[in-house]
From TrEMBL:
Cited Pfam families: ZipA_C (PF04354)
Stretches that traverse the bilayer: 6-26
Bias type Basic and acidic residues, positions: 35-46
Protein name: Cell division protein ZipA
Role played: Essential cell division protein that stabilizes the FtsZ protofilaments by cross-linking them and that serves as a cytoplasmic membrane anchor for the Z ring. Also required for the recruitment to the septal ring of downstream cell division proteins.
Length: 239
């Protein structure tokens, strides 16, 4: 299978990871999630591959069995943070973009962190990166960025060993600002990340993001904002 085919399959799986990630945003931990099962206690004894080496990256199979639901921020070594946590988990739309490595390359963990810092992203809730509103982080993320490889989070303790074919950016609506304003913050951030990482920007269909698709998304989000405008106040009748 070609590198591009593998990348497309991986990004397809990332869509599932994104939905599961959003599902977990704002949800309290359940008591049963406080302990990880040891490999011998699972239904099967397969141990998930490490992302530490090029050989393992090349052998990774995104076609099914080794892709699991994300456990972002639930690991024993994870540092809990509320930065980027949504005030509630109610949302009705997700807009996603990807920054993918060019054919034959991968995105390195250290480079991702540096680029994220340069573009104003904050590491926080669920161990992923978020774009927050200045001085109002309690309003939740404008958008977030995750790894497309399971579990979707960024392990800062081992970030130097991380290599991934792509990272995913997702905007969940409603956001703390209007949908169109959020998009106008998301797009330049993604484009700058791609520039810093020498990657390419893909849309939610895993195609290169072009002007026509950008315009279509803008119009779609304008429509979303119109549908979610607060109804005008009814004026009291004059007697």
């Amino acid at each position: 299978m070609s590198d591009m085919a593998m990348l497309r399959i991986g990004i397809l799986i990332a869509g599932v990871i994104l939905l599961a990630t959003i599902f977990f945003f704002g949800r309290p931990k359940k008591p049963s999630q406080g302990r990880r099962l040891e490999p011998g206690e699972r239904d099967n004894t397969r141990v998930e591959p490490s992302l530490a080496t090029d050989d393992e990256i090349e052998r990774a199979d995104y076609s099914g069995d080794e892709v699991s639901q994300p456990e972002l921020g639930l690991g024993a070594a994870a540092v809990e943070s509320d930065l980027g946590k949504r005030p509630n988990q109610d949302f009705d739309k997700i807009v996603s973009l990807y920054v993918a490595a060019k054919a034959g390359n991968t995105l390195r963990g250290e480079d991702i962190v540096v680029a994220a810092e340069k573009t104003g992203l904050t590491f926080g809730h669920m161990n992923v990166f978020h774009r927050l509103i200045d001085n109002k982080p309690e309003l939740g993320p404008v958008f977030s960025m995750a790894n497309i490889l399971q579990p979707g989070s960024f392990d800062m303790a081992n970030i130097r060993e991380l290599e991934t074919p792509a990272i995913a950016f997702f905007l969940t609506l409603p956001a703390p600002i209007t949908a169109l304003e959020a998009w106008e913050k998301l797009l330049p951030n993604v484009e700058r990340m791609a520039e810093l990482l020498d990657g390419v920007v893909l849309d939610d269909s895993r195609n290169t993001l072009g002007r026509q698709r950008i315009q279509h998304i803008r119009e779609e989000l304008r429509g979303y904002d119109r549908q979610h405008e607060a109804p005008p106040l009814t004026k009291a009748p004059r007697w």
